[in-house]
Each structure stands twice: as C-alpha cells, then as structure tokens.
Amino acid sequence: MSATPFQSLVKSEKVHSRTFEWLEDSLRSAANTALVEGADSSMTAVGQPTTRSNTTQIVGESFQVSATSDAVKTHGRAKETALKMLCAA
Length: 89
Description:
There is one protein chain. The chain is an alpha+beta fold. It has one domain. The protein is 21% helix and 13% strand. It contains three helices and two strands, in the order H-E-E-H-H. It is elongated. The termini are close together. The mean pLDDT is 80.
C-alpha cells in the first residue's frame, strides 16, 4: 500500500494537546543591502512572528476477520488478520 504524493510530502509531529500552536516568521522581500566600506548602516524594522494554531484529529478504522479465515491456509500470506492490519494502516 503506497501513500499519495501529498501524504509523502507532509510530515507528522507528536503533539501533547488537542490544540497546538507554533510561531511563523515572515521573510522580508529581497533588497540591495550592500554597503560601501565606512558607510553608516540604517536600522531595519523586524516584524513579530505570527502565532498559528491547529486542532488534532483522531482517525480510526476497524475490521473483522473470522477465526476460520485466520486458520485456513492461504497462498501468499500466513494470516488474514495480518493482511487486513497492513491494509488498514
């Protein structure tokens, strides 16, 4: 079972709350900041980071496999439950 390209690019992170926050800095536009030797520099205003937040989501899926299906010898796999768990992940 393979993930979609989007899922492959998205990273996951452990959080310790249902709502979590992080800071996001903005980049200023590119400018010519070259100075001649000995020139006075000017101060640049630096913006404050923006607080972002998101809410976690619990996702679950269940399946059922009979004991008979697990006991029967199947070509290519040891147990039906193992296959279903792999497909559900």
